[in-house]
Specification:
CATH superfamily: q2cbj1_9rhob like domain
Largest sheet: 7 strands, antiparallel
Number of domains: 1
CATH topology: Jelly Rolls
CATH class: Mainly Beta
Number of strands: 15
Helix content: 25-40%
Number of helices: 5
Strand order of the largest sheet: 1-11-7-15-5-4-2
Radius of gyration: 17 Å
Amino acid sequence: MENIADQIRNLDWELAFENLNSTGHQLFKSVFSNEVCNALIDGYDNSRLYRKTIVMERYRFGLGEYKYMKYPLPELIETLRRSVYERLSPLANRWMEALKIDQRFPNSHTDFKLLCQDNGQTKPTVLILKYGPGGHNTLHQDLYGDVFFPIQAVIFLSEPKEDYTGGEFVLTEQTPRAQSRPIVLQPKKGDMLLFTTNFRPVKGSKGYYRSNMKHGFSEVHHGSRYTLGIIFHDAIS
């Protein structure tokens, strides 16, 4: 198994913090190997790994399907979730301080899960998403309860232009009294994207204000697109 903890530790976190502060997202290249990506795709039909399946068109979320993993998570994914959270928690706390929000995040992901449990959020939110031709995801935020972490991650398991076409990842940012700003990305297989879950602080003339963000992706034209979503807070259901 890849030593994902070492890989996460060796990423350029100083650059990540700069980009998350300035743009609300950070792309890391080649975090997962092709072999790991393929194994996760191959496991999509293994019902023992999942607690819930969502057919998106039933809820007008878009067109496609995703599955929530159940506890205990596979070791690689559990390590990834814990390692990335523990790198991001200091930045998340600085964001709360800048916005004068009375919320602080523990250093360890284990303690953060306990905080979620105290608020009735006990279900894991790690998920694998599958989209075929016509598949898309409407703009949204992954909150799941009163307690949520302000940054999340997605691992891209398929190679654009080889496994699928279209399917660009889209972020929108809404600042007060302004039109939304779109950000369109097309990461490669194995890349990890960090991005704002709900809002981030932006420095204005009178201090910091909340800049709200949503995410989704555009229509897949051909082929199949898989991604692994890493959300650090748990869900009520």
